[in-house]
């Protein structure tokens, strides 16, 4: 409570504060105290400023008061992702794109930056641009545009090194941020806790969401609380009815088998479609319909839309408790997305290998052609000082540049994902709400209460979609620097679009969930997706040779050779020695062993703490039992004496 | 709203910042909302009081089943009528703010749930609590049998010293194990 004697208290403190620093140190002490106070005030002002900077606070609060904290947690997650992507975009843009644009060579000066002669008359067509070919392909959006000069411009900016470090740094930064957020989340209130120990007490004391400000939501909340009370009472009362354990087991095995089949089927479908798209790429582009050109993305998005409801219907066979069923559902959707993504990647790898083969022959042809030119020139003009061949950049023979192709695939995938998501919201929520609202007047049954009714906001579907979208961005950012910028725009428009859609077309859930432990669950998924998208990128950096004529690593044997070159040429010699020693297997293996031992030790310690916890609980129980015995004996004594001390 | 009486003095503002968990922006917003609740005559009174009905008309509290109890708990009025001064209002917002600690929140939650103000949550308090949570209408209420079962389950879970009531430390012990409590015990203007 705010004491109403604050001015007197403050005066007292000020008067006697200086007296604490007696003797010689008085002035220094007073100065220190003053600085401490100023620091506190500065921190407070800075905190105020920081909270004022957080965007969309009002919007999210409105959603929260209508729909409860779980729907709002999706928007908070979206906002967090936007912040993350903004930082990644700043890295990519500031350290890679901007230097190339400002200090690098302009469009049209060297072969990799120019549209080849054969494609030039179609380079401005809308259909080609929408496919990210033509001028789009040879722009800063993709890997192929960047030049491989060691240093560029007045500042001697090392672009290839910067490109590699930013590409890896994106993963490093994301990892740091995700783990920091997970640690912060698990700090508040602890995730897990004792499941089932305090079910009733929690329902009683913590089930009301004080942020609800809308009477309709409050009514829903009352209904859901009542239902949950009744459910738990019934649960507690009756024992497990083993109706027919064998039938249930058989149904569950059947359901899992069906789901595995559909997962396998979807993986095969994607592989088949990507193979077909490779064949299409060899045909003349004009003969293909739009559908055939975008088949891969279309099929992937379709699978992402159709399979989750399919899994839900199959899961009805299993008859699990709703919370467990939700976990299974989330796990299956996760497996679906993962399987699809990795099948797509493997099919893409096949394409990359094919391109690498083609590149070898083109490269040999180019080198042979150049040697021919040099020998002809020297034999004709009889000099050894030969100028480079005078061919227009658009006419030079170009290699297939697999990195740009991969980048284009990821960008197309992201774009189609965006389109499908927005279309789904427009049709599945908005159109449905319009139909229910306006056809209700002339329809036989009550549309609002009965079949279509208004949609509910699918939290888990949306969150998973967001996580996987981010996974694709992480994978594709190395090959298409413009992808991160695209994602920033996408998240920004998503925020406004989905806020509008949820407020105007959705109704609150019937069972208003709480956004509690799920937060760390989704962060854990994000972490897993981060690792899984790190793997392909690191593999390509370490193993696959870069294209010989495009991108910042052209001409080198491996992409990471840039780092080696920089260490050899630019840094002092002893740093090179340090690196050579550090990468010695004799040093790395003991380090790995040490980490494994540390993990084992920490695991053992945490188990010990848990045991100590249980012991303390038991002791507390015994102590209170003893106390209550004492109390009851005191009570009986007091009663018999006719007195009972009031506590 | 431009008169000096309705503006918050700078020194009071910094004082409130130090004494509560609220940021400067939140305090200014709270002052604005509080002034809107005051009637014309009350505006020029040195420490104006807002009657309980006006407080309960705030949209953030209107749908809350515990609104009357919240008003009573934070009110410093001698007449126990649930009216709030501005400092009571800030107290309320501070306890319900994002940065308030678990101890503060559980302390106030205990006082809110203690319907008869006797310092413990006994069977009567728990029954009133359940009735608040299930809504005021008759068809959502629990039957007497269900109520009895529910209360005995709760006391079994939370009453450590088995005296038939939940006191503050038992309550805080339960609340500290809950992952949802801190995030749901929040009111933001």
UniProtKB/TrEMBL annotation, chain A:
Primary location: membrane
Short name of any one Pfam family annotated for the protein: TMC
InterPro entries: TMC, TMC_dom
Chain ranges of the TMC domain: 401-516
Keywords from the named record: Membrane, Transmembrane, Transmembrane helix
Record flagged with keyword Transmembrane: yes
Topology class, membrane: Multi-pass membrane protein
Subcellular location(s) of the protein: Membrane
Family: Belongs to the TMC family.
Protein name per the record: Transmembrane channel-like protein
Organism in which the protein naturally occurs: Oncorhynchus mykiss
From TrEMBL, chain B:
Signal peptide extent: none
GO molecular function, one term: magnesium ion binding
Gene3D superfamilies registered for this protein in UniProt: EF-hand
GO BP annotations listed: integrin-mediated signaling pathway
Domain of life, per lineage: Eukaryota
Domain EF-hand: 101-136, 146-181
Entry keywords, A to Z: Calcium, Integrin, Magnesium, Metal-binding, Repeat
PANTHER family tied to this protein: CALCIUM AND INTEGRIN BINDING FAMILY MEMBER 1, CALCIUM AND INTEGRIN BINDING FAMILY MEMBER 2
Name listed for the protein in its UniProt record: Calcium and integrin-binding protein 1
Protein species of origin: Oncorhynchus mykiss (Rainbow trout)
